[in-house]
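Input:
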Amino acid sequence: MLSLPVFIIASLIKIVLVIFVLLTAVAYTVWLERKVVGHMQNRWGPSRVGPFGLLQPLADGIKFLVKEDLTPPHVYRPLFIAAPMIAVVCALTSIAVIPFGTAITVFGYSIPMQITDIHIGLLVILGITSVGVYGVALAGWSSNSKYSLLGGLRASAQMVSYEICLGLSLVGVLIVSGSFSLREIVESQSGHFWGFIPKWNIFYGGQFVAFFIYLMAAYAETNRIPFDLPEAETELVAGYHTEYSAMKFAMFFMAEYANMITVASLATLLFLGGWSGPLFGPPLLQAILPTFWFVAKVFVFLFIYIWVRGTLPRFRYDQLMAFGWKFLFPLAIANLVVTALVVALFGTSRG
Amino acid sequence: MLHLVLFLVFGAICVAGAVNLLVQKHPIGSALSLVVVMASLAVEYLLLGAEFVAAVQVIVYAGAVMVLFVFVIMLLNAGEEELTKGSRVAVVLGVPGVLAGGLLVAWVLLRHSGEHTVSLGALPGYPKVIGQLLFHEFLLPFEVTSILVLIAILGAVFLASKPEATPRPTGKEN
Amino acid sequence: MVPISYYLILSGILFACGVIGFLIKRNIITIFMSIELMLNGVNLSFVAFAAQWHHLSGQIFVFFVMVVAAAETAVGLAIIIAVFRTRETLNVDQVNLLKL
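Output:
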């Protein structure tokens, strides 16, 4: 256990580092999406600003900062300004309980690669996701325009419905791993079976159905295609962020991509074994390899997100809600019952 | 010391939110201040060690029940309140009455509470222990409340559905 | 080390604010929210007593109170929507058709 001053300094450094890395990751996820979707549509994507368009996020950031921040006259001002802040704060806070790797030793202190490890880590992420609905709902309502209100109501109804399926798909993982703490869930997935297949929850824990439920619920939670009717440009103008411009719109944008990254990190932690992967080389390399594997798996997940975005058409709203309530929800409950039965009959390898 | 400071800070936020709920004229302001009260109450639960209850408070109460309130306020386009004669009478009589009752209770509590103190995180309510209690000793209330929730779902769906338009008999029928 | 009476006083203040809100407000939804505030105040005193006597059933009871409050909110808001559809108003003083 670390002493209090060391803990505070280490936590402050970790917070600054994680926020910096997360914001850069958000910016470059936007770049990645534009490149990948561009190539899928047989065009280049951003390629002029810097080599391979790598400075495009910087140019976008400058544009958002310099653009005129227009507040329409008939909006309900306090909530109009507060809603993007709520969205962004919730999106950035849930990264606090996500472990990026094993503990590293710095100056003799063993510091875990996680801002805080609490017993109820998974519940904290679910709670913050639940509170994030307010950003969307209040943005839609305070904009005082019919497109925004409809888009906001639809988006929040969709998010609330798919939160249930998200939570239920995670309960199977909880039964198999036996703890809410994210670090313990990852550590229970270490090791191999049958020689070379890693004991990830998706293989050995039998949670492949839960993985697909989680995938689809995550697409709906983050309002991405194929579930992005509330914010599609061809539908309700732009849904709940119609009336927003410049920095406030950038905050919604950042919140959406930060949510994507959080959801992808959670998927790798719970289903794909987190930071487990082959370790080799000198000790310095071995200290950073777990984080590298974690980042690689999150990248694969984000690539699948963007791939799906470029490929599938979007659902109509009633199809979307019917899919969530009439298909995913019973499937998640069935997964829960089957997992509970198997664990009760055969026990878990964790005792 | 840290416990006292954190308790006072979040207790002040709770009371400020509760008073704001009374003072706000528009229901959306009251709803959002109630969300603030619930969030700071979750921190108070954490200070007493009830971490599972705090998480459930945020997920269920602040994240679902209050979202439902905000939805209904948006859907029904609730406007600002109007003061009627009845409400003015209630303010004049009710507020001092409740305050007097509250002061009486507070005085009795302070006189008879004795020396009981609680430390930070006094009774850790780990999910594992709560789960075991829920499924062993409190199994009957658990199952009964799940049936209650089912009844509530059915009732809410039925009440909120639009009344079916009865087909009017027209003069021409082929 | 905080005396337990501080938690109980905070719970009492929240409950009193809930009662005052219930009495003076005229909008149905705000009255309903005051009921939720009262329930939250009571929850706090349950958790405080659980911590004082080291008995987890206080926290379990809070769990049940939350579930019941959620169910009650769902049905209550559905009733409010139904009332709004017929009476076109959310002012509780105007829902008085049964008055003599």
